[in-house]
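Example record for the data management plan.
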Amino acid sequence: MESKAVPGLKDWLMSERPASRRQAALGRAYAGWCAFARNRLALLGLFIILGLALVAALAPWLAPYRPDVGDLMSSRLLPPSSAHWLGTDDQGRDILSRLLHGSRITLFVVTLVALLAAPIGLLVGTMAGFLGGWADAVLMRVTDIFLAFPRLILALAFVAALGPGIENAVLAIAITSWPPYARIARAETLSIRHADFISAVQLMGASKARIVWRHIMPLCLPSVIVRVTLDMAGIILTAAGLGFLGLGAQPPMPEWGAMIAAGRQYVLDQWWVAAGPGLAIFIVSLAFNLLGDGLRDALDPKAGE
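Corresponding structural encoding:
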């Protein structure tokens, strides 16, 4: 009986004539997952990110030592060993423990930046594309001003004005991250604002706000999600750059960029101090890029043509 239930469920999900909006939504989600699952590298990226989230949640129990306490007398700059798998830093702190706790900071930064920047960019882009005229011109010129400066340089300027700290770093990165999302949302809106279903909704008396919120934004969301995922690597590198310069998370917080900054003077002799956080940044950034590529293929409506 169970072997027949799975094909039946698949046929129900992939029906060309869904009986309800719920069935249609589940069918689209299933088709997207099937397309995503065919990309092995994207699955690898997904598993790495899920592993990062699990490690961040269990960091207090997985870390063998406290991340902010070290022994300067007997544990300073020890090489990797059975006692300290990734060695210790210049303060005698276990690098592995600091990396595990630092994963929490990394997830905190990328999650907050995505939650702050993506909605702003989506709203600005859809409003500019749908309204057109002077509203489009003003919103896009503001977007162009932000795009005229490199992200890291602009983030440095905002952090210098706001003051160092992880919260200000998140705010600065979010302020500099929304313009690309606005551009994508505007382009998507321009391609669908004169569609027949939009005209039908207008004839039914729907307000402009309702049209943008209920009909245009959902269609722009997949492209924005893909771009956000691909930008995660850049967000991580920007946060690490701010930490490296002392403008992000402040000591003794185990932020990966700050850990690299602390180990740069020992990079020739005690290479493990900077190698651990550098490798962590590389792996997580690569995982987000792989995931973004897979989502782009899965959410692209022209991929199957």
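Summary line stored alongside the record: The radius of gyration is 23 Å.
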